[in-house]
TrEMBL record, chain A:
GO terms for molecular function: 6-phosphofructo-2-kinase activity; ATP binding; fructose-2,6-bisphosphate 2-phosphatase activity. The lineage of its organism: Eukaryota, Fungi, Dikarya, Ascomycota, Pezizomycotina. It comes from Acrodontium crateriforme. It is an enzyme of class 3 (hydrolase). Residues 54-268 form the 6-phosphofructo-2-kinase domain. This is fructose-2,6-bisphosphate 2-phosphatase. Its EC number is 3.1.3.46. In the C-terminal section; belongs to the phosphoglycerate mutase family.
From TrEMBL, chain B:
One of its GO terms (cellular component) is cytosol. Keywords: ATP-binding, Nucleotide-binding. One of its GO terms (biological process) is fructose metabolic process. Residues 495-516, 542-571 have a biased composition (Polar residues). Residues 45-264 form the 6-phosphofructo-2-kinase domain. One of its GO terms (molecular function) is fructose-2,6-bisphosphate 2-phosphatase activity. Pfam families: 6PF2K, His_Phos_1. Residues 486-520, 540-609 are annotated as: Disordered. This is 6-phosphofructo-2-kinase domain-containing protein. InterPro entries: 6Pfruct_kin, 6Phosfructo_kin, His_Pase_superF_clade-1, His_PPase_superfam, P-loop_NTPase.
Amino acid sequence: MTPSAMPLNEPTSAPREDQPQYRPDLNRAPQGDFMRPSMRTRTRSNSKTNGVGVQVEDTRICVVMVGLPARGKSLIAQKVVRYLAWLSITAKCFNVGSYRRTNTPNPSASFFDVSNKEGERLRMAAAEAAVNDMCKWFRSPNNLIAILDATNSTKARRRWIKDRCDAEGIETLFVESKCDDEELIMSNIKEVKTTSPDYVGQDPEVAAQDFRERIRMYERVYETLDEDEADMTYCKIINVGSQVIINRIQDYLQSRVVYYLMNLHIKPRSIWISRHGESNYNLSGQIGGDADLSSRGQLYAKALPDLVSKSAGDRNLTVWTSTLKRTGQTARYLPYEKLSWKALDELDSGVCDGLTYAEIEKQYPQDFRARDEDKYNYRYLGGESYRDVVIRLEPIIMELERSENILIVTHQAVLRCIYAYFMGSDQERSPWMEVPLHCLIRLTPRAYGTQEERMFADVPAVSTWREKGSKAVHADTPTASAKASPMIKPQSKGEAIA
Amino acid sequence: MDTLLTADLAARSANFRRRSSTYVDAIHDLPEKESMAPAQLYSTESGRLFHSGRIVIATVGLPARGKTHTSVALARYLRWLGVKTHIFHLGDYRRAQIGSKDEVPDDYFFVNASTSSVLLRNKILRKCREDILNFLNHENGQIAIYDAVNPLAVGRRALAKEFEKHNVQTLFIESHCTDERIIEDNVRSVKISSPDYKGWQPEDAVQDYLNRINARIPHYETMEESELHYVKMINAGSRVVVNNCSFGYLSQRIVFYLLNLHIKSRQTYFCRAGTTSEEESYKADASLSDEGRDYMVKMSETLLAHREAERQSLIAHGAPESTALKPLTIWTSTRRRTVETSQYLEEKGYRVRQRSQMSQLNPGVCEKMSERKIRQMFPEEVSKHEQDPYHHRYPRAESYHDLAVRLEPIILELEREQNDLLIIAHESVLRVLYGYLMACSATDIPNLSFPRNEIIEIIPASYNNSAKRVHIPDLNPKLVPGSPEGIAMPVAPSGTGTPFSIGSPGTRTPESSSREASGGAVPLWRAAIGQSALQASFDAAKQTQTQNAELSPAQKSLAQNINSSPTSAPSSDVPALNVTTALSPLKETTPVLDITPASPPPKEDGAQQ
């Protein structure tokens, strides 16, 4: 932003009479995190006035994966990390395999034979290194959840991990993925494991063969979680959720993780998301409001059913909209069942509702800059921040994980948050992502990461995207796809980009 | 006459399940208009959530394993979610059919019972199941909770198959206990106060009860049927087995709720935030005024003194000198005034957490408008609001329903919380949370009143929570109603601890005035609202204070009635609480249905019989 664009000391920058007085530090009010460690109580005991009790935020949890290879452990671990990161809970995955790989990059199956003393020693060393790193990582007070991704197939190994964590004051939550369904296992092997770093450059058939051999090695010593470990906190998921055993859940955060795991399913499906069609406010450059669609927006609404059916075929979708008029109007012609959710409403811009970016800059210059500095945490005076939106979207995400094919018609900020969950984008960048109007995005969750595909309706619209630090005029761009930006790659219909 | 006779009368009526004889409380009254549920995700014409089918939740477990506690808590939560739910206690049907305890055949609970006992059992079962199906098929019911022992695998399979025929899913919830202490505690605290043991000595009752359980133990099979949907809760939830349960939205919600449900009792306190310098503005998010800070100090001191007094009374009742209360955690919203109101306690070392979900109801376009202006500008919206103050949403505003949906994650965390909890929040938020804890109907929630000079204490009990009000002395009377005159924001703005819920100030809805006319059947809430509504707003402050401090004769008699009714026996060891159970608004606002007499049953019923 150029200095000339900021008429800081001019009289026009003063708030209007009828506006509440501007207080620069208001957006620094507590953010109301989903979970945040309290620095104070970690460093200073408050037991004198308050006794001793369970303090949710003080808990640090090590989620220990348990299960034979090809049981989807890494998939679960990676999803949990992404989910927690999205909720601003710092989580990290420690993969024992990658520690082991530094010494034995391409081991054969016999390496995993229990009678192979050298293999056994190296594997223990890798586990030790991972646990040590994890304990070190937990010393930073912001770090709340670690995931130890390894087979952890014996009771002795699990007891060892629990003892190590107990000594550090870290809670353990064992998550076992147990599966007897041969078909499921084989499809998992084919899809994921043959592309595993252990088999780089090998013939896939040979790799799959060797991998099955490796699983057999583990099977010989594998001990499932049972009564002997009744003192441990664990969650045992049998055949992708057909039975779940939950033992000694201690606190809310643990139950949250367990609930999330229970909602996951592996049926193939896609999620389609779109912003509403161009609204009259988009045309005038105002934010917020509850405006009707412009005539071009209505054209988009009419074009949407075709656009959707080209991508979705004859799948039966459910449409979710917000409660604002423009999303309902956009979804009007879609031949599917529709639900309207208050939680999908646009970010509430408080006092700035109904203003243009130029007016905001004029009336609330400091706010305008503060928002550019930290857009994720900036809360509009009397309104919401992106962080607030994420918290209110959490039930939506849970329901999305549980559902199959869903089409969501919503708003720019909300769409960015949902997109950030599926793509794992960081909080620094996600509020700046460009989501053009009149564009349908299809997200398909895959084992590692989410596939994205964008389809444009051939209906022109204004661009509402404002670059960081820019003046933000809602410019009328001739076609939405003409402009390339880092976040968007226009491409021919149907072509997927990972 | 006693409960048993009325239960008998009721059971023979066509509409028996409308009112249970056993635990007459908010949960067991079936509101007429079920669409008025507090936190429904979305509404449909049938009143059912369409992406979830109809479900029978069948409890499994020997007596005294906490089945009823679980069913009641679950029903409260599901209703709050907007799911039409009703509980069917098989025991009620048995008592209704057989009468008092003495007439139950000795072998009634045996597997190898005599033919006559088996016939009797089947008759009772059939009646109960007919009622369940009627509820699901003809009354838009979505979840029926079938509270029975269901001890045998073969019986459970048959049950699931039978409901399957009617396109109803069956979800079993087993309460399994391996810890004898949990069972004995449960027998002592809950079972011997049930109508089965009316007039028995406690020791005899416990003994008889345990014998009855023992007689059944050889025939009890824990759930292992892998093809059925079930949740097995072992030792009050310390271990949970979830089998084949991912068949719908509701089944997953139920499981998550059960994971967080714990029976340990702890206190929840509600209080308001202090007043601010810009009371009428929602968007300003102003700081506390001087009076607001004064309130913060007095409120905090009152709460601490109250907690200390409770500790002393525990000691006086024989607890050891070193008895400590549960640690107190404070939740506030992220709004400035609630955060600042917690400062005094935070400085004393209490843990404070801010939750953005707990922000007040957003008034939308009506912010800072006078009631007259709102009426002028949005006459249609006002009339819609008057028809349904719970669900109606002013332009750009939130309805109470929206607020409840927003607060839903907080509710689960509330169930899980182990510490005592002080919630400092805006009145609209307190209404919704209180509505959940006390199982209020949606029609009542927008009218609940939380004057600033009171801290509300919610005391958990097995079936029905009770509430108690702690007076904060010496407050500036201006603080109590809080808001300047004339702000009759349709959604009761911050500070209106007053009657201006909607409608012109000083008038009551016909509904509430007619209730008042009927004398004792006015809940304290309503009475306070109705009375103070007649006052100008500043006078109303004092009036509210006195109304709540002193009970009118009618209210006293109501409280006594409840006190003397057998249904309140579970909490009768704490005398102060019985008065306050009358605070649950739903109890009195639900119309008395059909021939089932209101509780406590008047003498005439016996005479008629």
